[in-house]
């Protein structure tokens, strides 16, 4: 994730650790995935990602929009946890887009959970990735 303010070495260390944990979870994962191309678009055209999925940014920069404000920018290796299925009624879900285009690889929650249940080391890395993200 790219920071929008000066963060110092602590943020960089946490970000690096998160990306390493994400890499350990998804590299070589034997579960079906889908690649989504996010075309270059203005914020007005940002969109929700499919429900019941988890993703990793593979290329480009992916902006996260909440209530018409960009609240974060994800870069390659960042974990993407779409929130559309857990947002409270009356609260707008996050939307995603890119000024110059991006590529995201998505896995279904069900497929990911099945793969994680078979591999205790991946489960541990998954917890680390989520917490650090």
What is the count of DSSP helices, taking H or I runs of 4+ residues?
3
Helix-strand category? alpha+beta
Distance between the termini: 9 Å
| Helicity range | 25-40%
Cα radius of gyration in angstroms = 15 Å
**Spatial order of the strands forming the largest sheet:** 1-7-2-5
Summed over residues and divided by their number, the pLDDT gives a mean of 88
| Spans where pLDDT lies below 50 across 5 or more residues | none
The major beta sheet can be summarized as: 4 strands, antiparallel
Q: What's the overall geometry?
A: globular
Number of strands: 7
Approximately what portion of the residues adopt beta-strand conformation?
A: 25-35%
SSE series: HEEEEEEEHH
